[in-house]
Fold this sequence. Notes:
The chain has helices at residues 2-7, 43-52, 67-75, 88-112, 127-137, 150-154, 176-184, 203-211, 224-275, 282-313, 326-343, 363-379, 436-446; strands spanning 13-16, 33-37, 57-62, 80-83, 119-123, 143-147, 164-167, 194-198, 214-219, 322-325, 347-352, 358-361, 386-393, 397-405, 450-456, 460-468.
Amino acid sequence: xxxxxxxxxxxxxxxxxxxxxxxxxxxxxxxxxxxxxxxxxxxxxxxxxxxxxxxxxxxxxxxxxxxxxxxxxxxxxxxxxxxxxxxxxxxxxxxxxxxxxxxxxxxxxxxxxxxxxxxxxxxxxxxxxxxxxxxxxxxxxxxxxxxxxxxxxxxxxxxxxxxxxxxxxxxxxxxxxxxxxxxxxxxxxxxxxxxxxxxxxxxxxxxxxxxxxxxxxxxxxxxxxxxxxxxxxxxxxxxxxxxxxxxxxxxxxxxxxxxxxxxxxxxxxxxxxxxxxxxxxxxxxxxxxxxxxxxxxxxxxxxxxxxxxxxxxxxxxxxxxxxxxxxxxxxxxxxxxxxxxxxxxxxxxxxxxxxxxxxxxxxxxxxxxxxxxxxxxxxxxxxxxxxxxxxxxxxxxxxxxxxxxxxxxxxxxxxxxxxxxxxxxxxxxxxxxxxxxxxxxxxxxxxxxxxxxxxxxxxxxxxxxxxxx
Length: 469
């Protein structure tokens, strides 16, 4: 221990085996860490010392690291109580934390911004512990509510939603375990994460804590940076889970909405055919049947997209590659989509500057991509406008692009349209799940290609993808 202290960079650490030795130490205010060996009989003197040097981190080293002594040390302003003889790694970790503190602080302040406003409840019968935890979490911008009496805290949890509970275990009137059981029975906070912070380090209490629904068990005395990191990651995970849940609900709502319209259209069309079958002219019948077929194809495409989405998410896209002409595949897709463009009186203009376009591709999947891009160009393009399709090449890859004349993509980064559930359909008063382009991106990337969007508001949108030769 003494050797480690001697080697400490810039002599920022002080260790004394007798509290009285501190009188002989010069420039204490310039030190980073002071470790005092003690039997806790001089705890009042240590308390005065901590108040005299508030910026100095004080640790106590003892052969008796009991809960009573730890709580007594915490009440005096001591940051840590370590066993004696002192494990060298504890000191080494302290210096590593100090070296990285500035970098970590800058990083955390930037990351913590996303947690601003989340609500935390701290319950501990020791005000010193509450103050320390509050100070530890203050950089995150959290809304912190504290209670010394757990019975008072139990009256709040049924009326106010919290994002995390930090509970001491050994408290008068009611234990942290009892309070956790009350929290788990409330409507608002039954799913809210609970963390126990306690000086009880025995396995029995830890197991009891996890059985009570705790997602973490932090022992006192704790390392401030470690606790801050634990709380940050718990809250970050919770926020991501809530965002994912919201996306799922939004997705289900979009699918329901998208299916509702074509189903209703089919029902109305079929009812009309049944009621007025003999009175409807053949041309009108054909038109109604076409509408029904269009609605059925739309629903099939939606179901295909949903199925393909889950394949993409679970990385189960299996490409069945075979040699095929990209130029021929583009022509086939244009032929299949021509009725969509005729309906909006749009003119397709094809420009092919590629020569030999034979390459190994999954024909079905690439066809899915091209069809999706063509239909989007039609749907979001102006009536009586042109749609430009181009197939070109360079020494390493083929480039396919579709450009329409329309409202454009109202996003600061047009490539965001390839994100899952991202849809700008509402801007054009259309229905869309936001899965089509997401699936296109996954398919192109599976072929080791790239896909890109560019757009100008009230002018055009152009989607391009590349495939390696």
